[in-house]
Amino acid sequence: MIYVVLGMHKSGTTLVSQILHRSGISMGEHFDAGVSYDHGNKYEREAVLGLNMAILDAGGYGVLGMGAERGTEMTFEQRELMRAVIRDCGARHDDWGFKDPRTALTYGLWREELPEHKVVAIFREPSQVWPRFKWRGRRKYLANFLYAQDYLNRWYEHNANILAFLESGASEALVLGYHELMTSDAEFDRLRRFVGRDLDDQRRPGLYRSKHPTDVFIRYADRRLRGREGRGSGDVMAELAAWRIRTGA
């Protein structure tokens, strides 16, 4: 079986990929178990990451400047490379998959080429992740009003895309909440039942950071988001939470 992990950056996709990989589902090559997430081990399949960045025309690994409008089409050469990645992984592994947060933007293209597969989507409260992008010095402190808008727009696009994929019903899916996964064995058991095998628990509660309340910058960005999209981050969280209840064991 093929497993595709979807989620916004810093929302738990690496943890899910690590759990699956350490449980016998190949999520990439040459992972060093001794290298932590903070030191660069993201449990990403390099071929998928490179192709996603090419499709999105990403000039670097930055998150805030990469909008969802870039992930809707690809060149003939990129499609052939995608097919080659799928063939190669399928030839070498009975069970495999991939994780890259950018796949939340490109999954519609991958879905056109992938054979039968399952989706594991994971979501997280945006205020918990925002401190990773927030400018902490005084010099650009007020620029956080703009940074927060860019960040929340990206968070919205990734998760709105995931909701659209779920609503299409094209693939069997499980939706996980990051908070629930880090604080409840029941959520871990939902993933275990969905995959249908025993899982190597890689959760480290001490790494559950950024438990920050919503600040003025996110509140301002959320008002702007609601004015533009007709729904805010709370509405998206509620929809994802409903899908969490609806999907999986």
Topology:
Layout: E1 2-6, H1 13-22, H2 46-55, H3 76-92, E2 96-99, H4 103-113, E3 117-123, H5 126-129, H6 144-168, E4 172-177, H7 178-183, H8 185-195, H9 216-229, H10 233-246
Parallel strand pairs: 1-2, 1-3, 3-4
Regarding quaternary structure, how should these chains be classified?
A: single chain
The number of helical runs is: 10
Low-confidence stretches: 35-40
Give the termini separation: 17 Å
The CATH class is Alpha Beta
As a percent range, the share of strand residues is: 5-15%
> Largest sheet, if any?
4 strands, parallel
* Mean pLDDT figure: 89
**Percentage of residues in helical conformation:** 40-55%
Strand order of the largest sheet: 2-1-3-4
Category from helices, strands and their pairing: alpha/beta
CATH topology term:
Rossmann fold
Q: What is the CATH architecture descriptor?
A: 3-Layer(aba) Sandwich
Number of domains: 1
How do the SSEs run, as a string of H and E? Answer: EHHHEHEHHEHHHH
Describe the protein.
A 4-stranded parallel β-sheet has the order 2-1-3-4, sandwiched between helices. The chain is globular. It has a single domain (2-246), classed as Rossmann fold, CATH 3.40.50. Helix 4 runs parallel beside helix 6 (144-168). By secondary structure, the protein is of the alpha/beta class. The model is unreliable at 35-40 (pLDDT under 50). It has 10 helices and 4 strands, in the order βαααβαβααβαααα. The longest helix is centred in the middle third of the chain and has 25 residues, at 144-168.
